[in-house]
Amino acid sequence: MAKAMQFLAGAVLALGLALPVAAEEAPTAATVVAVVNGTPITLGHMIAARESLPEQYKSLPADVLFKGILDQLVQQTVLQQSAEAGLTKRDLLQLENERRGYISGVALQGVVAGAVTDEALQAAYDARFKDAAPQTEYSAAHILVDSEEKANELKTQLEGGADFAELAKANSTDTGSGANGGDLGWFGLGMMVKPFEDAVVAAEVGKVSGPIKTDFGWHLILVKETRIAAAPTLDELRDELAAEIEQKAVEAKIAELTAAAKIEKPGEGIDPALLGDLTLLDK
């Protein structure tokens, strides 16, 4: 039988025909793309390296990116090999910290990904506004000057019929609002410094109040009108609420794992000042 097979193969070759060969296996993450002094670099290493690149680099042509990443990994490998034997205690400890930090981030990825759902967002939104009292917004203008005497002088002019906007343009040291006749637009509580805010809340609409002193100087304030602020929509707060939900989920997971772990801290009595003693890393 063996001789028959050899004869058949010879006959095929003599006729210029090729024997069928096994199809080449498709590349996988384990496929070796380079070997540096016996150290393999795989396609998986390249894919992981690409994922860590900024978005603008990912848009490069595939052949350019492939060559660039492969060259970089080869260069990093020869550098690693040249320095590995001389790594200091500080280097090794830093590597351990970086590995710990990376893996802890991996542990939280699933926690964060599963925390932000439409139901969780709606619940967080409802909790924030369910019992919230209506908030007032104010439309006001001011004239800011550097002395109480100047503020009183301008107030006298206003009481005599002078135009608030014109006085603001001519006298206010707040050049931004002054150019607009002192107009500050609409604002809610918490957006202005406290003495100014208190004066606005207490002011009578349409009547000039002040002078009011703040760290910026002396203000004459004119509240033009007020309104009840509309609550922001869920979409407007989506990112903010999602961040809060993620933070709570992370805190809960850490608390759960910490409670279940056996944790000992024999070093709690160490002098905190030793944190700054870099010489300990060389001993």
In short:
By secondary structure, the chain is of the alpha+beta class. It is built from eleven helices and six strands. The relative contact order is 0.09.
Give a structural overview.
Among the domains are: 32-113, no CATH class; 136-228, Roll (Chitinase A, domain 3), CATH 3.10.50.40. It contains 11 helices and 6 strands. It has helices at residues 2-14, 43-51, 55-58, 62-83, 89-115, 118-129, 148-159, 164-171, 175-178, 194-202, 234-260, and strands spanning 32-36, 39-42, 136-145, 183-188, 208-214, 217-228.
Helix run count? 11
Number of strands: 6
Mean pLDDT across the residues is 89
Helix proportion: 40-55%
How many strands, what sense, and barrel or not for the largest sheet?
4 strands, antiparallel
What name does CATH use for the topology of the domain at 136-228?
Answer: Chitinase A, domain 3
* CATH architecture call of the domain at 136-228: Roll
Low-confidence stretches: 1-23
CATH class of the domain at 136-228: Alpha Beta
What is the H/E string?
HEEHHHHHEHHHEHEEH
